[in-house]
Q: What sequence folds into this?
């Protein structure tokens, strides 16, 4: 539809991009309206992750043109084809920034309608820019712009409701953003087919493969969010870009990434990015192991298993994660066997008690009834005047049952209830055992053992030198070392920053500690190639004249390691980048062609 030229703004002394509509399309009113609508849409927006538009032509002017911010970099498609966003949290951080940009656009009444990797630029400094609002829908009460019978946008990223001919909405942009989240997280698009017709049919069915089946290292929360964004029903997707942004920030924080914007920028501007991704992966593994240990201590087995499994998915060769996962599985199997044994014993006990009672009832029911009642022999009454003599001792002893005699059995002359009524002899009570004797041996007092060292990970915002208890551990972004619990002295040293000296309190069980850098040192600025009396300003702050800076460079306060500022010398301005703690000279003669 248009061609983009690189140009130089002679008034503001900066490089810009000029988008010019093809001459053969200028005669089509529909195309001109779409081109003018892009300028009107982006003019409403001002966001760090949206391309800036500086100027535009009138709707009827020929040729039609836009003056936009010039970006040194490449598209997200080009970057991702060369460098994988692995671990998948890098893809989540990328989509988080795009969701913030869409939230700003939607709040201004602008729906992009063509969100795809080709319309996202990766600047050299690691900044993402959402571009090409050429088919954006500007939602206004008095304006409705529809295109009948045409599909606007890229089919692989279109929402199913747009394919059905319905009006685009904010949820349509979220579906397109979900395809990017799936693509970055898994390394492939959610809908792929050999022909356009088959592709459209897959999008209409809206049944993508589970991301965890494509890339095992993706977390459950991120996989669920991918599928939620790709729901066929717009009402089942996130309600807004703001909600999607919050969900992404939450899952990243749970993984151990507290500053996704800086983490992503470091990955995008690193050379090579794979080294930065490997560092992030190692930190995510460490954080997952720490969460797993905390869950084990809290007896949350399911949470511990999820954390250790996540660490094992990120690092399949991690021995600690593998051992913990195996241990939890073995413990679960043991518990299952114990529960099965306890259940079997309970059933056996219940069956035993029930069987005894049933046997008693069955025996009483099957006992044959006597044919005739037993005849009781009644002795004749003694004479009234006679006195019965006492029985001899031998007869008394003979009639007294001994403990060894067996219990009486019912006979024809002895009723059964009489035999049952006689108590059985009780066993003699056992003698209580004496308490065990404890031998007391005098031993010499043992010396207190020194506290054991524990493994910890120490992180710093930028690669810096760490001195721990006077020992230089080198220059890294994170340090894995072993220390004893207690207080240790630390010093973080970084070029361009003041040394940061403090105490580190190492606590038992805590494995990760974050340190910070000292205050950035001022940047020193000197200018040449301009009149000596020309004033020099940085972002409207006067530093002095060119002559004064040539004699003595003036310091400029810095808040970060790098800072993009506007340097104005006399009437000429240009964008420059200052670095903390360094002296930088800017030659206005060399930069006359476009800045430095």
A:
């Amino acid at each position: 539809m248009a061609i983009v030229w690189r140009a130089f703004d002679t008034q503001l002394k900066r490089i810009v991009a000029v988008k010019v509509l093809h001459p053969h399309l200028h005669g089509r009113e529909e195309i001109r309206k779409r081109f003018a609508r892009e300028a009107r849409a982006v003019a409403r927006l001002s966001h760090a992750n949206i391309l800036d538009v500086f100027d535009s032509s009138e709707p009827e002017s020929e040729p039609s043109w836009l003056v936009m911010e010039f970006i040194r970099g490449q598209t997200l498609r080009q970057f991702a084809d060369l460098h994988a966003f692995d671990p998948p949290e890098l893809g989540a951080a990328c989509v988080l920034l795009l969701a913030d940009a869409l939230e700003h656009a939607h709040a201004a009444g602008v729906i992009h309608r063509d969100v795809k990797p080709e319309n996202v630029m990766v600047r050299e400094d690691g900044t993402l820019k959402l571009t090409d609002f050429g088919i954006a829908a500007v939602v206004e009460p008095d304006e409705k712009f529809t295109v009948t019978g045409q599909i606007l946008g890229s089919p692989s990223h279109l929402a199913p409701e747009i394919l059905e001919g319905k009006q685009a909405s904010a949820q349509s942009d979220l579906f397109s953003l979900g395809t990017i989240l799936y693509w970055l997280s898994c390394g492939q698009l959610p809908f792929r087919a050999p022909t356009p017709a088959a592709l459209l049919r897959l999008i209409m069915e809206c049944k993508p493969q589970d991301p965890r089946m494509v890339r095992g290292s993706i977390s459950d929360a991120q996989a669920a969010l991918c599928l939620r964004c790709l729901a066929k029903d717009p009402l089942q997707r996130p309600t807004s870009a703001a909600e999607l942004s919050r969900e992404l920030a939450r899952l990243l924080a749970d993984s151990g990434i507290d500053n996704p914007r800086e983490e992503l920028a470091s990955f995008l501007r690193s050379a090579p990015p794979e080294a930065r991704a490997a560092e992030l992966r190692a930190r995510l593994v460490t954080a997952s192991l720490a969460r797993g240990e905390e869950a084990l201590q809290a007896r949350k087995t399911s949470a511990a298993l999820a954390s250790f499994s996540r660490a094992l998915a990120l690092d399949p060769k991690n021995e600690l994660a593998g051992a913990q996962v195996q241990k939890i599985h073995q413990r679960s199997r043991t518990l299952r066997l114990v529960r099965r044994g306890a259940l079997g014993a309970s059933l056996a006990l219940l069956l035993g008690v029930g069987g005894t009672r049933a046997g008693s009832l069955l025996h009483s029911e099957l006992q044959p009834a006597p044919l005739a009642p037993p005849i009781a022999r009644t002795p004749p009454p003694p004479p009234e005047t006679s006195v019965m003599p006492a029985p001899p001792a031998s007869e008394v002893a003979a009639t007294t049952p001994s403990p060894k005699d067996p219990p009486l059995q019912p006979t024809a002359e002895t009723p059964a209830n009489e035999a049952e009524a006689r108590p059985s002899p009780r066993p003699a009570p056992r003698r209580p055992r004496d308490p065990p004797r404890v031998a007391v041996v005098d031993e010499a007092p043992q010396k207190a053992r020194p506290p054991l060292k524990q493994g910890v990970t120490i992180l710093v915002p930028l690669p810096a030198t760490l001195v721990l208890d006077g020992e230089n551990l080198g220059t890294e972004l994170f340090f894995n070392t072993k220390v004893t619990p207690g207080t240790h002295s630390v010093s973080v040293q970084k070029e361009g920053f003041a040394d940061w000296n403090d105490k580190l309190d190492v606590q038992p069980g805590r494995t990760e500690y974050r340190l910070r850098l000292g205050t950035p040192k001022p940047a020193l600025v000197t200018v040449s190639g301009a009149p000596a009396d020309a004033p020099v300003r940085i972002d409207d702050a006067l530093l002095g004249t060119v002559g004064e800076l040539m004699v003595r460079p003036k310091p400029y306060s810095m808040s970060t390691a790098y800072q993009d500022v506007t340097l104005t010398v006399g009437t000429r301005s240009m964008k420059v980048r200052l670095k903390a703690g360094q002296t930088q000279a800017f030659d206005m003669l060399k930069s006359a062609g476009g800045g430095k």
Notes: The CA atoms of residues 500 and 518 lie 5 Å apart. Residues 319-366 form the longest helix (48 residues). Confidence is low (pLDDT under 50) at residues 139-150, 355-378, 383-421, 438-444.
